[in-house]
Amino acid sequence: MDNTAAEALARSTWFDFELGEVTSRYHGDWLAFYRAKRAEDAALTQARQTYHVREWYLPKTPKQVRARRVLQEEFEQVAKTKTAEIVAEARRAVAALARGDIETVAELCIGYEEGPKRRQRTRDFFNAHREELLTAANALTASDRDFGKALYFEKPDPATGQVGRVHVQFGPTVTRPASARPNSYPSEVELWWLGQVMPEPNGKLYSSPHPSAPSPGHWRFYQLTTPYSLVHYGRE
Predict the structure, then answer these.
(1) 122 and 163: one domain?
(2) Average pLDDT per run of 10 along the chain, which is 236 residues long?
(3) 39 partner at 20 to 30 Å CA-CA among 26, 107, 216, 235?
(4) According to the model, what pLDDT value does residue 215 have?
């Protein structure tokens, strides 16, 4: 196998975020990288790493072992570094809500599973909570320099079908009524990561690049949580 063939095999076997060592460690030697990476994957598969998932969902095949490992690697190396995209997507959703532009929000949102009724169900939800969501969205102004300053990440959880998440808080902190839990909350935008390894919530995990998966992946708006009732999709 020559260097060209090794590069082609490597690109079809591993995700682009795994290929950085070709330059940093192997100085462009694709054949050396390919051999080392194959050995690394084989060793990790034999070790059958233990993951913090339910016993019935433990990986059972080498591809499943690898998919769960690279799912976390992608989240750390790719998703969490896209801070500018996170802030821009969160601002776009909040700005649309502040304008009362439910159609744009319905287009952005992945609060429901993909299907012919997804957009309508999203539209119905936001219309039902329009006033509350407008109040929260209008707490953000274009001059709010703290928006996106603190990002709170949650790792993907393949046991529950959950993709990676990020929470962007903004606006004044509000204490909920005494009848609720006596905690104080700001408003919060929640985005979900749809990546190369797990391109859909509750969907399949890929152990190698797949043509149907987004590359390099992107953050999508899930919901705006208000401090007043903490409304969520499907429950009040």
Answers:
(1) yes
(2) 91 94 92 92 65 54 87 96 94 89 86 76 84 80 74 92 92 62 71 95 92 91 74 38
(3) 216
(4) 85
Residue 193 β-bridge partners: 219
Cα separation, 135 vs 116, whole angstroms: 30
Same domain, 205 and 92: yes
Query: What is the sign, positive or negative, of the torsion defined by CA atoms of 193, 197, 200, 204?
Result: negative
Residues 19 and 84 in one domain: no
3-state percent helix, strand, coil for the chain, nearest multiple of 5: 40, 15, 40
For residue 85, give Cα distances in angstroms to 17, 71, 127, 166: 17, 20, 27, 12
- The β-bridge relationship of strands 184-194 and 165-175 is antiparallel
> What phi, psi does 226 have (nearest 5°)?
-100, 155
57 & 172 share domain: no
